[in-house]
Design goal:
By secondary structure, this protein is α/β, with parallel strands linked by helices. It has helices at 7-21, 33-40, 44-56, 79-85, 101-116, 130-142, 160-167, 191-204, 220-235, 254-266, 279-291, 320-335; strands at residues 29-30, 60-63, 67-70, 90-95, 120-125, 147-150, 172-175, 186-189, 210-214, 245-247, 273-276, 301-305, 314-317, 343-346, 349-351. 43% of the residues lie in helices and 18% in strands. This is DNA-binding transcriptional regulator, LacI/PurR family.
Length: 353
């Protein structure tokens, strides 16, 4: 921010910029005077003046007892110029589940950025079925969607329907997982680096017998996380004991998974920490540890890739907002007749319990 400009004006420009980018849309709540003051390290009088000025310009509406909201048809909203350009078409989103916090955030942000660019979003959930994934691709092609964002299933084999999209240079972005040796657009988290940070943290805290709870290694995300696990051990010249790795079948039900993990840990009394490949497995692990009479983290420390909403479990935080924003940006590039496939990796953050 420019120092010559009054502080309340700087805050106003930040809010206007977020409206123009689509990050804030008509009807969205704007942070309160107190929240803005904390965010920008200013007095509450300054943040109040910023909101009053925006209200005077017709950009926000202040509703007593409820808060401040972006007004419809304001001159900075991405919706205003897009309305003049007319509706651009439909984007399809194919996603394996809606069970996790990450899945839900992906849908939220992708829909937000798709609409900010003048398109509408239709979603199809595959429930980790490649058959459903193929059906979804075919359905969207029949609907003449402009482009697709696909979160591929966990299965080991490439889906021929996705391969055909790539060969046809159909506007496509893969998220979370990508196709090795296939030249297409993709956006993933830094799975390897994130897992390396987490395992290094455990090793630095005296844990050497670290269990690994995972699904079978059938996709790039799992493979990268395993590589990060191994890299942490190798960087400290420590042996990797794969006897401490518990691989669960894809179709195993929760009760059976908990029992399997519990027996696995009970049979390996030297284990003092466990890394779970995702939040769902971390929840199973936590329940299993408690059911065999141990405490988390006092007896066994658990680290998860993705948050579990359990304060006893450390985790790796993906930047879902940036993944979504980048995926939509790469798709829009293709819709504007640019085709130079990129494979991008978004940084993650390790969050200690």
């Amino acid at each position: 921010m420019m120092k010559a400009e009054p502080l309340y004006k700087q805050i106003q420009e930040k809010i206007k910029s977020k409206i123009q980018s689509g990050e804030l849309r008509p009807g969205d709540r704007v942070p309160s005077e107190k929240e803005l003051a904390q965010q920008y390290h200013v007095s509450q009088i300054t943040s109040k003046n910023a909101l009053i000025g925006l209200a005077d310009e017709g950009i926000v509406e202040r509703i007593k007892g409820k808060g401040t909201f972006i007004k419809k048809n304001n001159k900075y909203s991405a919706a205003a110029p897009l309305a003049e350009l007319s509706y651009k078409g439909i984007i399809g989103l194919i996603i394996p589940t809606m069970k996790t916090q990450v899945d839900q955030q992906l849908l939220n942000y992708i829909e937000k950025y798709v609409r900010a660019n003048g398109y509408e979003l239709i979603i199809r959930i595959t429930r980790e079925s490649q058959i459903e994934e193929t059906n979804a691709v075919n359905m969207f092609r029949q609907l003449n969607v402009k482009g697709l964002i696909i979160f591929p299933t966990e299965k080991a084999t490439y889906n021929e329907a996705i391969l055909k999209l790539t060969l046809d240079q159909f506007p496509l972005v893969l998220i979370d997982r990508y196709l090795e040796n296939i030249n297409t657009y993709s956006v993933s988290s830094e799975n390897l680096n994130g897992t390396y940070q987490a395992i290094s943290y455990l090793l630095d805290n005296g844990h050497e017998s670290i269990g690994l709870i995972s699904r079978p290694n059938t996709n790039t995300a799992t493979n990268e996380r395993i590589s990060g696990f191994e890299k942490a051990f190798l960087s400290k010249d420590l042996n990797i004991n794969k006897n401490l790795w518990c691989l669960l079948d894809f179709d195993i039900v929760s009760k059976q998974a908990i029992e399997t993990i519990g027996s696995f840990i009970k049979d390996r009394p030297d284990v003092t920490a466990v890394f779970s490949m995702n939040a769902e497995l971390a929840k199973y692990t936590y329940t299993a540890v408690r059911e065999i009479g141990k405490q988390v983290p006092q007896d066994i420390e658990i680290v998860s890739f993705d948050p579990t909403r359990n304060n006893a479990i450390s985790y790796i935080q993906q930047n879902v907002k940036e993944i979504s924003k980048t995926a939509v940006r790469l798709l829009v590039k293709q819709l504007n007749d640019e085709y130079e496939p990129e494979r991008l990796f978004i940084p993650v953050e390790f969050v200690k319990a």
